[in-house]
Each structure stands twice: as C-alpha cells, then as structure tokens.
Amino acid sequence: GIPELREALEMKYRSLYGCHFHAETNITITPGATYAIYTALATIIETGDEVIVLEPAYDSYIPNIIVQGGIPVCVPLIAPTFAVDWQKVNEAVTSRTKAIIMNTPHNPGGYVWTKEDMLELKKIVQRKQIYLISDEVYEHLTFDGRKHESVLAYPELYANAFVIYSFGKVFHATGWKMGYCIAPDGLSNEFRKMHQFLSFSCNTPMQYALAEYLKHPEPYLQLPDFYEAKRDFFMALIRDLPFTVHESSRGTYFQTLGYDKISSLGDKEFAAWLTREIGVACIPFSAFYQSGKDDHLVRFCFAKKEETLIQAASRLKKLNAFL
C-alpha cells in the first residue's frame, strides 16, 4: 500500500484507541477485507489445525479454513440476540486449536461485543496461545451509544491477531474492493509473504483518494448516527407488521426478524416465498450455519435509500393478510 494511506490509518487508530503501531511494518493494504481474511488464514493454518468459528458466520470463513486443510469447529451463538456463549467457546478449545475467528459488530446478527466479551476472550488466549482473526469491518456501525471494542485496544489480544477492516463498509464503496490488515511485526511479515503472491497490487488511484479522505474523520465518526437513523426509520415502517422483533440491531446495517406469526416454512423456503410473492428480498439465517440450523429468523438490510425502504414496507403490508 502507498505510504500516505498507511500513515493516515496509523493516525486514525492512534486517535481512536491510543494504540501504537507503525504504518510501514504493521498495516497492509489489501483488495478487500474478504481477501485479507483468506490471506490471514493461509498464513497460519496447516493441515489438521482447528479454527473456532462462531455461528451464524460470514459465509467465507469456513471455505477459507477448509481450503487450507484446516478443520472448522463451529460454536453456536445464542439466538436470537447472538451473544457469545463463552462456556461453549471454552469447551471447543483443544490441543489442536490454532485460531478463533471473531466478528464484531456481528454479521449477520447485529450483536456488538462488550468489554466483558473481550475479557473472556483474553482469558482463553492467555491460557493457550491462539491466533485471532478479528473481523471488524463494521467498526463504525454501532448504535444506542455502544462502543466498538477493537482488538487493537487490548495489547494482549493484538499480540496474536490479524485485525481486518474494510474501506467499502466505512465509505459506502464496497465495489472498490479495498481493505487492510493490521498485525504485529512477526505476523505482518508472514502475512505479506503470502500476500505478495496472491495480489501483486491494489487499486492505486483509490488508495490516494482514501488517504486524502481520511484526513477528515467526521464522515466515519458520524456513521453511527447515520445508520442508527436508518435502522429506526426501517423499524418504524415495519412496526405494525407481523414480524417478531427480538431486539433492534445493535450494530451493522442488518436487522434480524422472526416470522413464526406469518409462516411455518423453513427459513430458506420463506425467504424464497417472500421474494417471489411479496417482492422483498431477505436472507435466511440457516445460510450462515454449516449445519443449516433453522431458528425461523431472516436478515433484512436497511442500508437503502428511504424511498426504497418505504416501498419495501408497503409491499410487506401484504403479510397482514396471512394472519
């Protein structure tokens, strides 16, 4: 990555978390965050290594583990809020555990890790040296005054971590495929050995644009309020619809809804039916589980123009006829 961009990122995280690392040795620009997750796993995983995955999970994690010869060990989060069950995480740790993939704010469930969660993770890492792949691409999308708990703010966790970010999520430019990985010296060096043969370069014009844009923190610091307003607008639109709202999203731009009052279909069948008959698309949560676990929950995205959300809510009103 160009020095200007990495230096701007160094300043950003020094300001946010008071952490000290070096642009030259610890920050690597990548063609997207998904790429960075793959490269981090490719850097550390050997055949037979176990990697703990907290499900429901972003759908690239498990294939990325398997292709390296690793073994995904899936630990369910507590539906429907998707808080972490730390007893189950502890029980999943074995002598072959190489890494844990963590994701906060959580896609698809919208849970935001707390300080207590980070301290529980710290206990595990201190007991057994385990690498962390920390997916923090929704770092600025936290609601209702919640604080993003970054691995960068916990030196004991950062010492064994690859921390992954996305410019696409922060600056509404996912098609640019621009991300980055922050890691301590030794891990960063090994990451770059893999990276140099997977991608010879990243989009240079976009790097200069992002470096310039990062000089002004207001756009990303205002994101929580921007997306919280989107969430609240969407929730007000669907207030009288027959979905079950277990809680409003704590972070990301996704809202979890239950549909037991509407249909007894499995979630994949319900999502297909909703798209076909009502004209509104959602994602079934079973798609984010290796086992296909079905809690009759679906995910809606509220990162849309207000007129799009209004049109979607108008179509969804047809569901009242099914009560």
Question: Would you give an account of this structure?
Answer:
With about 325 residues, the chain is an alpha/beta fold. It has 2 domains: about 5-215, 3-Layer(aba) Sandwich (Aspartate Aminotransferase, domain 2); about 220-320, Aspartate Aminotransferase, domain 1 (Alpha-Beta Complex), CATH 3.90.1150. Helices cover about 40% and strands about 15% of the residues. The protein has helices at about 5-15, 25, 35-45, 60-65, 85-90, 115-125, 155-160, 165-170, 185-200, 205-215, 220, 225-235, 265-280, 305-315, and strands at about 25-30, 50-55, 70-75, 95-105, 130-135, 160-165, 180, 255-260, 285, 295-300. The protein has a 7-stranded mixed sheet, with helices on both faces. Strands 8-10-9 form a 3-stranded antiparallel sheet, with helices on one face.
Short characterization:
The chain is built from 14 helices and ten strands.
Spatial strand order of the main sheet: 1-7-6-5-4-2-3
- Mean pLDDT, all residues: 96
The sequence of SSEs as H and E is HHEHEHEHEHEHEHEHHHHEHEEH
Class of the largest domain, according to the CATH hierarchy?
Alpha Beta
Q: Quaternary arrangement of the chains shown?
A: single chain
CATH arch. level architecture of the largest domain:
3-Layer(aba) Sandwich
Report the β-strand fraction as a percent range.
15-25%
Helix content: 40-55%
Which geometry do the CA atoms define?
Answer: globular
Q: Are there runs of 5+ residues with pLDDT below 50, and where?
A: none
How many strands, what sense, and barrel or not for the largest sheet?
Answer: 7 strands, mixed
Output the CATH homologous superfamily of the largest domain: Type I PLP-dependent aspartate aminotransferase-like (Major domain)
Q: Could you tell me how far the N terminus lies from the C terminus, measured between alpha carbons in angstroms? A: 55 Å
Structural class: alpha/beta
